[in-house]
Amino acid sequence: MVVPKTRSLIVFVVLLLVFNAATLCHGGVTSRFVRKLAKGDDMPLDSDVFRVPPGYNAPQQVHITQGDLEGKAMLVSWVTMDEPGSSQVLYWIDGSDQKRSAHGKITKYKFYNYTSGFIHHCTIRRLKPNTKYHYEVGIGHTVRSFWFMAPPEVGPDVPYTFGLIGDLGQSYDSNSTLTHYDLNPTKGQTVLFVGDLSYADQYPNNDNVRWDTWGRFVERSVAYQPWIWTAGNHELDFVPELGETKPFKPYSNRYHTPYKASNSTSPFFYSVKRGPAHIIVLASYSAYGKYTPQYKWLEDELPKVDRTQTPWLIILMHAPWYNSFNYHYMEGETMRVMYEPWFVKYKVDLVFAGHVHAYERTERISNIAYNVVNGICTPVNDSSAPIYITIGDGGNLEGLATNMTEPQPKYSAFRESSFGHATLDIKNRTHAYYAWHRNQDGYAVEADNLWIFNRYWNPIDESTAASA
Ligand SMILES: [Fe+2]
User: Which residue ranges does the record assign to the Purple acid phosphatase N-terminal domain (predicted)?
Assistant: First the structure.
């Protein structure tokens, strides 16, 4: 016979199990990970990660990005400080002694009381797929050498691994994020960067010296693998009171994109194909309403995506559309209203954004039924919709977004206020393995992970709720 006290304990345990099951069925997880909440400090100017390379006029801030539509070209950029020097890049296939050369262009800009160094941009073309290339810059004075892997030929079943970093900045936490990315046993081959690079605009007069330090800080990664750039609000550098009224001046002089290859008219929105992925970069801070260049470009671009060639359709932007933290409320809303029906129609697999300094992953949801009169304003599960991932947790000096809306909305599958990065390991046309890493853990530890099923080839429900 069960005594009353034991019976009430059993009832309590059963209720607890039911409650837990209900929680799991609703999917959303707010991580209970405990962390320090202090704001991050930027690394001082004399930090070793900002060291100027030795030698007269030595190239610094070397960075590469894709130079064409399909990954057969690489755009190599660097800065020389003492004199213009050569804009030539020498490059050769690993193991070969046949060196080729390409010639680039030099640009330079002034920002209030700052004058930039000589910024070189040089595209090297006709790269062989899946081939290791060495390259040299600084010809004539101080030569520096680097290498990269040309990507595989664009195709539906070539495995390829992307890294995901956003809102990086140059704090001690930023350094930790970059180190975790470098040492992650899942080796990222290209970084999809979702905007907010240097945070130089946080300094008096938007001190552009902090653009230079950032360029030297990230060189250890971006000189060896391309980073695909998205412009964030910290790239605007719009300061009328200093006479600086041309938005994106430092960013657009320093970080070029291959926008013309995808018929875009602006460096801030464009697309590239890389391995099995078609990546569309959108501009949260350029006009996107109906009839604007960005609207018309995206309207033309989406029907061109050939899922038999590039099964994975990935979109990058800075301001997230779905965000359950109490920061940047509704900032992505007007773009969502304009473009979300297209994302569902064209079965976008994943949307990555930054801006909110935290991590969040949604279920597959859409909110396209809503108009201002019908009141249907709650996002619903939608198997044709993308998963939205906010990865603005690179570690900049502004600190973490810690305040969340409660209760956690059903569409939010996982959220946490920690710095980190993610990897997207595409296996073939149907499967990709996604993992998010927080900086407090060991390099191999995955704090959130998910098998992602392709929307075009394998549109089964992979949501947290489905697997629970
Ligand atoms: Fe931002």
Answer: 59-148
